[in-house]
Structures are given as structure tokens and as C-alpha cells.
Amino acid sequence: MSQRIVILGGGESGVGTALLAKQKGYDVFLSDFDQIKDKYKEMLRQGGIAFEDGGHTEELILNADEVMKSPGIPDETPIVSRIISRNIPIISEIEFAARFTDAKMICITGSNGKTTTTSLIYYILSQAGLNVGLAGNIGRSLALQILDDPKDYYVIELSSFQLDNMYDFRAHIAVLMNITPDHLDRYQFEMQHYVDSKMRIIQNQTPADTFIYWAQDDHIDAELQRRQCSMLNAQWSMVNGQCIEPTTPSSRPARPGHPTLLPFRDEDFERLGLTFSQIGNHNKRNALAAYHAAKSLGIDEQVIRRCLDTFPGVEHRLERVAEIQGVTYINDSKATNVDACYVALEAVNTPIVLILGGKDKGNDYSVLHSIIRTKCRALVFMGADNSKLHEAFRSLDIPTADTHSMADAVRACHSFAQPGDTVLLSPCCASFDLFRNMEDRGEQFRDQVNLLT
Model-level pTM greater than 0.85? Predict the structure, then answer.
């Protein structure tokens, strides 16, 4: 009897997993609590895969040998809680897909900078002529690529949610950009849970593998020191002189990792004489991480440096949209946490009208107070409920506007902005209160800005 895999979620990662699993001889069933997009339904039908949407049928799910859960589904969801209570293994798409390839895995995570760094590494490897694919949290299914167009290398962006359900997967090169508070609503508002999730990037790594990380991060060095305490070939941490297992929100613990360490520091950018096409100190870190990843793969130095200078950037990340009546409009919709907004504010050198708001994830906005006082002419709040934003920034005595749509937000910015200013969409929050996703928010910003011309 073939092994039964049940897939929760009918988006890109779920459908990709279903098709690959079917091709590998699994008994496959896919279930989505919401409606599956028509294009994915057609792919499932053509693949001969049984599926349902608009709800979960427990008897068709709880008989699984293994469940692949899309990363956006929390463990607290009733059906996931039932799966965990039955001790049915839950894995991610990346965990499943990697079983069927011998390709080199270059994996990037971090609270901020991972999309730019992932895209830049992929760009360098492509320009160097390698047979490389781009996958993961950046929106492309690893499973589909392994099924339809296998590569020798994969550059994979990994979110903490994906890492939570990865166990045997091994990154040949792991890159961790930083760890700052994000998604704490998914981690019981415990920062250590989130930190542990990010550190799973090194699980299963050996000294033959490389771990590239920003040495000036507040957490990474300390976590590496904690993980030097080992016992019985398991991963442990030192607390009050005692070795204990690290916390994890996942349904199974992480395995240990013992990679070769390759830290980098901000001053390395100038020391190495690097230049980069993108603005901001945070982008220098992204460039350094990509530089070291490419060097570790043996890419020619001249190719790497040329690619740093010609990299076109990433949509929705400090993306210049237009200049209208002397005002520059920048789309930074990917800034879904406080630290991402902070580095965007740092990168802009003119007075700023800042758009903030969306679905709050347990943000502490006080860390923005000083830089907003220094740089911002006005704040435009944009969300279904802006009450927390008003409370967080009331003490700054800066002009504000309360808006509940992108059209109203852009009109408010237009009224505040003066020639020479920058209107910056860098929301600090998730997009799901008013928009389908982060991309929809950025695209609506572009559309509304272009209506001003």
C-alpha cells in the first residue's frame, strides 16, 4: 500500500507538493479551508489529485502517514491541533521536495533582507552560468521545479514558518541575515521561540557546510555559543549552568548543526572595496551575505562584483515608483515589521511622509520614535483599525492622518508632502486587513501614485 500524504493548503507550495508526491507514487489528498484558485484547481485535476476546498473533512485527513502544511497555517488551527494530537508528522514543502534532489541548497532566512539577498544570490549564480532555481518563501514552489525543471543548485528563501516544519533537510550554505522581533503573535509572544525558529537554518549542517551570518546581530552569536553545549548528540542550550533542550513551537524538535562559520561585519563592505546598486546600510549587509555565498560556491570574483553593480533590485522593497511635483514616491510594502521600516527610514535622506499600518503582529513601535522625530514630516496611518498606531505615536506631536484605503492614504500623503520630500510606504505590519497580500498592497500604492500624474 502506498504511503498517504495529506496536504493542507492549496496554494503554490501545496499544489507543487501534491503533484510531486503523486509522481513519486504517494496516495495524495489536498484540503484547503478556503477556496482554491481556479488555476490551482485545474493543475490538481490534470494531475489526478483528489482535493477539497471550503472546509476540512477530518476522516480524510487524520488517516495520513504524513501531512504537508502550508506555512501560513498556525499550529493552533483546530485541524492542525488534531493532527499533532495524533502524532502524525507535519512537514513543510521544502522538507518533502528535498528528498527527491541531490542539488546544492543555498538557503537564506532572517527577519529582514532575506528576499533581496535571495534574489541577489540567484542573480549572481545565474549570471555565472550555473543551472540554478529560485524557490521558497519568494513565491516559487521547489517541488514543482524538481518535478518539471530540475536544477543543480537551488537558492531558497525560508521563513520561520517554513523552518518550523523542517527536520532532515540540510542547507549546504545557510545564510542568516538578522533576528529582530517579528511574527510574535505566532510564537506565543516569546522572542526566544522566534529566535529558535530562525536558528533551525543550521540544523543538520556539517563542517563541510557553511553558515554565513551578520556578526553584529543581537542574537546570533549568543545562540551559537548556547548551542556549543551538546550532550548525547542532541541540540541543547545553557541556562543557569544547565544544559536543556531549546524551546520550539514546532511539533518536533530541531536536529543539531555543526557548520563552518563565516561571520561578516558592516565594515567589511568598505574593507573589501565593494559597491552595490541598492541604497541603504542594510543593503550593504545583503550584498556582503551574497558576496560570501557566491565566493563559497567558487564564483569568479569579477562576476560577483559586476553583479553587485548591475542587480536591478526587488519589487516592493525600496522600489522607486515616481517623482511627481518634486516629491519622490517609494514602495516598501515588504517592510512588514518594525526593523524593516527602520532601515528604510535610515536609507532615505530627505524629509519623509510615512505610511504605516495594517495587521499588527505584536509590534513595539517605540523603537521608531527617535528616527521618526528626526526624519518624518507627517505620518499617514492606513488600516482597518489604527487605534494602536495613534496611541503609539501620539507623543511625537507630528501631523497624522487616519485612512482606511490606499487611495485615501496616497491622497493624504500628497497633501502633506512638499517638493524635495519622499512619500514612503513602509507599513511595519502585515497586509491582510485591507489587502490580499503584501504584493497587492504595493501594487495598489503604485496605481494610486500614478493617478496623481
Answer: no
